[in-house]
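User: tokens in, sequence out, please.
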């Protein structure tokens, strides 16, 4: 053991570069770790924010009988497979296997989705205690600190519902107290104009969603678009189009003083090579 420690010290002795925590993570799919190694794994700011965002939306933390620590599971429809693979790339350092395809049948129709899950990790158990204190997902009391622009972007990519005007965040599964707590952060921290919307189900259950006003969409675009995958930018469509022509995306080029119209945000992003690959926290 002493020899190995000395060798490691000798190898790193000539390295003087400063590396930002989490910027050099690689996939560990197929690699086995000991309990000691799993116990010291921590989440860098970027990955932490991404996980917060997907927990708030479609992600789920679970603790199985065979494990004492939590596992993060994330699933998207096949139509949103690009986004799921984008998230998997960011979190593959914490996964033991690759995403898998799932098929579910409703009557005679087949629904296809893609799913992945992480390893069982103590650092995820900490988040499970935060989001599932009584076994049911809630909005934590410290959501003001947790909801960074990156987390907000992933929450919108997962639970944002595109509208002709504004945007709806589908918080149907949360209690009214949780939804108001989340909405207050959008209003106070991000200065977004939001209203609470109610929907009554057939079983008389009332669900609550958050509507972000059209007047706040330009601000929201500036906050989250640098962290969104190009395939999900369509959810911000109302921020980039005029009210007189909501079906077109207007892009103004300052260098040429020309305006170009696109049929979708995705088309504009591909044409302008606007896929976001770098992050700042």
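Assistant: Sequence out:
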């Amino acid at each position: 053991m002493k020899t190995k420690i000395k060798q490691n010290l000798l190898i790193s002795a000539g390295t003087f570069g400063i590396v930002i925590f989490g910027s050099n993570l690689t996939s560990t799919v197929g690699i086995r770790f000991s309990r000691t190694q799993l116990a010291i794994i921590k989440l860098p700011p970027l990955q932490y924010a991404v996980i917060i965002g997907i927990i708030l939306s479609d992600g789920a933390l679970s603790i199985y009988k065979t494990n004492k620590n939590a596992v993060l599971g994330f699933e998207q429809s096949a139509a949103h497979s690009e986004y799921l693979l984008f998230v998997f790339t960011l979190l593959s350092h914490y996964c033991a296997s690759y995403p898998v395809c799932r098929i579910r049948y409703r009557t005679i129709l087949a629904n296809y989705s893609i799913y992945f899950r992480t390893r069982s990790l103590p650092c995820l158990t900490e988040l499970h205690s935060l989001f599932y204190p009584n076994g049911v997902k809630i909005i934590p009391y410290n959501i003001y600190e947790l909801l960074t622009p990156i987390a907000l972007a992933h929450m919108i990519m997962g639970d944002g519902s595109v509208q002709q005007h504004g945007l709806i965040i589908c918080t149907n599964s949360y209690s009214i107290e949780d939804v108001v707590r989340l909405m207050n952060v959008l209003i106070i921290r991000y200065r977004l104009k939001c209203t609470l919307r109610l929907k009554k189900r057939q079983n008389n259950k009332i669900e609550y969603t958050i509507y972000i006003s059209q007047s706040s969409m330009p601000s929201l675009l500036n906050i989250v678009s640098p962290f969104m995958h190009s395939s999900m930018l369509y959810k911000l469509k109302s921020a980039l189009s005029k009210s007189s022509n909501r079906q077109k995306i207007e892009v103004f080029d300052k260098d040429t003083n020309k305006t170009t119209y696109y049929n979708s945000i995705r088309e504009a992003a591909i044409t302008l090579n606007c896929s976001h690959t770098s992050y700042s926290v």
